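=== RUN LOG ===
request id: a7f3
mode: sequence -> structure
chains: 1
length: 381
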Amino acid sequence: MQSLREQPSRFAVVATVTVLLWAWFARPPVSWTFGLLVIIGTIAAFLTNGRYAIRRILGVVPILLVVSFIVFSLMATLPGDPAINILGPSATPDAVARVNAELGLDEPFFNRYGNWLGDAVMGDLGTSVLLRETVADGISRSITPSLQLMLYSLILATLVSFPLGVYTAYRNGQRQDRIINTVMLGFFAVPPFVLAIFFVLFLAIGGLSVAGTQIGFKILPGALYVPLGDSAVDHFRHMALPSLSLALGISAVFMRLLRSDMIGTLRLPFIDLARSKGLSTTRILWRHALRPSMFTLLTVMGFTVGALIGGAIITEIIFTLPGIGGYMFNAIAQRDFIAVQGGTMVISTIYILVLVMVDFLYLALDPRLRSGGAGLGGDGG
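=== RESULT ===
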C-alpha cells in the first residue's frame, strides 16, 4: 500500500491498461468499463491528495440532488396527463385514475419525488410506460453506442489537435500556421450534422454524378451499428464516419486552445534554459512545453462531453445508431416522462463524473495540487 501511495500515477496507468485489456477481450457492457475507470481515477486521486479528492466527491452530491430535483420538477410540470398518453384520448375517468394510482401520480409532489429519488439511488429508474421495460434496461442497452461514439470522437479529436496544436505553436505566425488555422476554423464553423450528411453522401453512398463523372466514394458504411463483440473490424468501420463527424469540430477548438497556451509556454524562462542545455526541439515541445500547456484544454475537454451528447443525438439519427440520443428522442416524442427522467439523470451523472475525473487528472499534471506523501488519510490540501 505504501508503494501505491508513493506512485499513484503508476497504479492508475497499470489499472487503466488492465481494465481496457479486460474490456477488449471480455466485451462487458460499456457502462461497466466506464464505472471501473471512474473508480480507478477516484482511488488514484485519494492516494495522491486525500483531502482534495474528498472535497470534490462530496461536492458532487448536492449537484446531483439539485439536478434530480430540477429534472423531476420539469417532468411534473409538463402539460397533459401521462395516464391519458398511455390509455389514449378515449380513456374513461376510472381507467385514468387507476393508472395514476399504479404510477403513484395521485400522491403529493414531494412524496413522488422522494420515492423516485430513493429508487434511483438503488438503480431503479422506473418502468417505461410505453415500452413496458425498465428504464435502466433501456438506457443500459442504448448507452453503449453513445459512450463508444463519444469516446472515439474524443480520441480522434485528440489525435488531430495535439500534433497540430504543438506544430502551429512552434510555427506561430508562419504560413503553415495560417493555413492550418484557416482549415480548422472551417471545420469548427460547420455543424456536426452537416459534416455527417456530407460524409454519408461522399464517402458512403457514392457521391454525386456531375457531367457523367462520379464524385464520391463507397469506402465506409453510412448506417447501422455493429457491436464490438460481434466484429471489431465491422464495428470500427461503422463507427468511423459518425465519430469523425463529431470529432472535426471539437478538434478545431482543442487545437486552438493548445496552440494559444503553447505559444505562451514557449516564451517562459525554463524553455530558454532547456534550449541552452542543447535539448532537441522535439523534446522541448513534447516533454517540457506540452504538459504545462494542457490545463485549459483538459477543462474544455470535460465540458465538451455536454456538446458531444447534444451532437450525438442528431448524429445517431443520421447514422441510425441505437444510442441514448435516439432513446431520449423517442421518449420525448411519445411523452414517456419516466424514460425521459431516467435518461436525463443518467446523462447528467455521466457528465458530472467526467468533470470530476478531469479535476482528478489535474493531480497528475499539476504538482501544486499534490501533498507530499499524502494518501487516503494524508494532510494534503
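=== NOTES ===
The chain has 16 helices and two strands.
Residues 372-381 have pLDDT under 50 and may be disordered.
=== END ===
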